[in-house]
Design brief:
alpha/beta; Arc Repressor Mutant, subunit A; Leucine-rich repeat, LRR (right-handed beta-alpha superhelix); 2 domains; 7-stranded parallel sheet; 10 strands; about 20% strand
Amino acid sequence: MVGGLPSHSAIKREVAEGLVHQKRGLTMWEVAESYLDKLLSKNMIEEAGHLQGLAWKQQTYRVHDMLHEVMVSKSLEANFHSLHGGQYKGMLRGKIRRLSIHADINDAKRNDMDRGGEDDYLDMQHVRSLSMFHLHGRHKLLKKLGSFILLRVLDLEDCEGVTNKHVRYASNLYLLRFLSLRGTNITKVPRQIENLEHLQTLDLDYTLLTELPDTVTKLEKLEHIRFSNRDDF
């Protein structure tokens, strides 16, 4: 099985990416939940247990391996989503709008990410969504976050190489709506976070943060925020 994706995270991402269409009499959240219900009813996803924090509990979902491969194939064929790294290395083509970077099994042994390669030639100007999954070391695209000028979704959950410097880069991505630094080793959020005027979701759970800057209160469109230090668990 592939997955373990929290329902709230999936819904927040859908809304942030503009994949949820307004319906009269319903909130965007309710519309997104109806999409999730349809996927469940068609057995395209299934429940996979719960994630639980100090004061919350959240249902997670997963996709069967075979169905996941079909979804990946169709997404690549339609150029809806671009994948790179691991088994997807060398598969980038066309105009990239949604990009996911996956860990290579050799990343823990050698840092290929700092060498020349396909990453050097990526056109970042059209990317709306960037996700990096469980990467070991520092992927060189982290140094180029400032180039993703149209980015709306940035998901760096559990990426070991994310530093406070990268959070500063992200704080200048004016159009950002969804930012997840969950499970990273960051120790500080810069005051410049107030630049993210369109930010709706900020996930800072299980980090090394002990406090947030007061400028977070200036994020007028912020609807969802999670913040915890992993040492408290």
